[in-house]
């Protein structure tokens, strides 16, 4: 049985800024990775056929290990959507088999991801990230927590407005 992981956030930022958060390496480095993890590098080649390689570093208390993800872009509609295939990878973007690096069998390989952007107003944007076909198992709730934390960290890129 599979399940799609879908997380939506509304940001107090214009569409162009939220788009840049996904396409600008300096911006990606500020939010990629769950809480307490950092992103020391993001090599972005955001175009159909391009490959981005983002690094997630665990905290020292968890070993300080660098883990890489590759995003192989399959479809891009500027300021509307980004579609890519996500994999664990080496720092050079070579895909790794999750089982071979000790992850459970329900960790996906060649996972289709879609990020959609929707301007709600000139200063507010809705972002939805969908990761397709997760095998329902022990990794799904961890992936959901990690993605939620990443997108919450993204909110720190813009000033918060207080009503």
Shape: globular
Low-confidence stretches: none
- Strand tally is 7
Count the helices. How many? 3
Radius of gyration: 15 Å
Largest beta-sheet characterization: 7 strands, antiparallel
Give the fraction of residues assigned to helices.
Answer: 10-25%
Q: Give the strand order, joined by hyphens, for the main sheet.
A: 1-7-6-5-4-3-2
Topology:
Layout: E1 2-11, H1 15-23, H2 25-31, E2 42-43, E3 51-57, E4 66-77, E5 81-89, E6 111-121, E7 124-135, H3 139-154
Helix pairs in contact: 1-2
Structural features, described:
- The chain is α+β, with helices and mostly antiparallel strands and 163 residues long.
- The chain contains three helices and seven strands; from the N terminus they run E-H-H-E-E-E-E-E-E-H.
- The protein has helices at 15-23, 25-31, 139-154; strands at residues 2-11, 42-43, 51-57, 66-77, 81-89, 111-121, 124-135.
- It has a seven-stranded antiparallel sheet.
- Strand 6 (111-121) and strand 7 form a beta hairpin.
- Helix 1 (15-23) packs across helix 2 (25-31).
- The longest helix is centred in the last third of the chain and has 16 residues, at 139-154.
- The radius of gyration is 15 Å and the shape is globular.
- The protein starts with a strand and ends in a 9-residue tail after the last helix.
- The mean pLDDT is 94.
